[in-house]
Amino acid sequence: MENKQQEFLFEKVNYKILLIGIGVIALGFILMAGGGSDDPKVFSNAVFNFRRIRLAPTLVLIGFGITVYSILKKAKK
């Protein structure tokens, strides 16, 4: 029997970049959360602030871009 060493699909750098991208996506979704009212009969304008409308979706899109980059990055050989 031959002992073949198992090769990973990506290099270590790719996985690090992928984890950073997933972290940025998670941060974007965390920033989108909240803004509700304790009383369902009262409307809260906190839903329309800068953090939820501009910042959080931008972070999510940047995170997706980082993850796509980590997948497409070629190994240096």
Pick out its properties.
single chain; elongated; 77 residues; mainly alpha
Task: Tell me what the structure shows.
The protein is an all-alpha fold. The protein is built from two helices and no strands. It has helices at 12-32, 50-72. α1 (12-32) runs antiparallel to α2. The longest helix has 23 residues, at 50-72. It starts with 11 loop residues before the first helix and ends in a 5-residue tail after the last helix.
Number of helices: 2
Mean pLDDT: 88
**Overall outline:** elongated
Radius of gyration: 20 Å
Distance between the termini: 28 Å
The ordered string of helix (H) and strand (E) elements is: HH
Helix proportion: 55-70%
Number of beta-strand segments = 0
Structural class: mainly alpha
Main pleated-sheet profile: none
Strand percentage, roughly?
under 5%
Q: Which ranges are low-confidence, i.e. pLDDT below 50, for 5 or more consecutive residues?
A: none
Secondary structure elements and pairings:
Layout: H1 12-32, H2 50-72
Provide a compact summary of the structure.
The chain is mainly alpha-helical and 77 residues long. The chain has two helices and no strands. 57% of the residues lie in helices and 0% in strands.
